[in-house]
């Protein structure tokens, strides 16, 4: 068997590289709109999840100990605080990503755990 011409192999390689680069092309404005809506829903879900987890823990402790709804109120408030903190962290992450994109940086800051960066 004969090997293909090196120039032909190089042309095929360049075609494959260009094909892969086209996958990373900037998204259309409509796709970005959906991305913003997804971020908004993510923040809402984080807040509601914190509330529901706090409510569940408080209700469970009140049932277990047979107390007034003191644990229910306490853990619901703690769940709300945790949900708000998580929501604010997501908003800060989104803001950093948007600022990096506006500055012309094609790859937003990635790497490492977000909690480790915030000291949690």
Automatic annotation (TrEMBL):
- Chain segments annotated as transmembrane: 40-59, 65-84
Which Pfam families does this one have? ATPase_gene1 (PF09527)
Top-level taxon: Bacteria
Alphabetical keyword list: Hydrogen ion transport, Ion transport, Membrane, Transmembrane, Transmembrane helix, Transport
Q: Does the keyword Ion transport apply?
A: yes
Q: Where is the composition biased (Basic and acidic residues)?
A: 103-120
A cellular component term (GO) from this record? proton-transporting ATP synthase complex
Could you give a single Gene Ontology term from the biological process aspect?
proton transmembrane transport
Region: Disordered; residue ranges are 98-120
Entry keyword annotation includes Ion transport:
yes
By sequence similarity, the record places it as follows: Belongs to the bacterial AtpI family.
Write out the function statement from the record: A possible function for this protein is to guide the assembly of the membrane sector of the ATPase enzyme complex.
> Which protein is depicted?
ATP synthase protein I
Q: What is the lineage of its organism?
A: Bacteria, Pseudomonadati, Pseudomonadota, Alphaproteobacteria, Rhodobacterales
Protein's gene: atpI
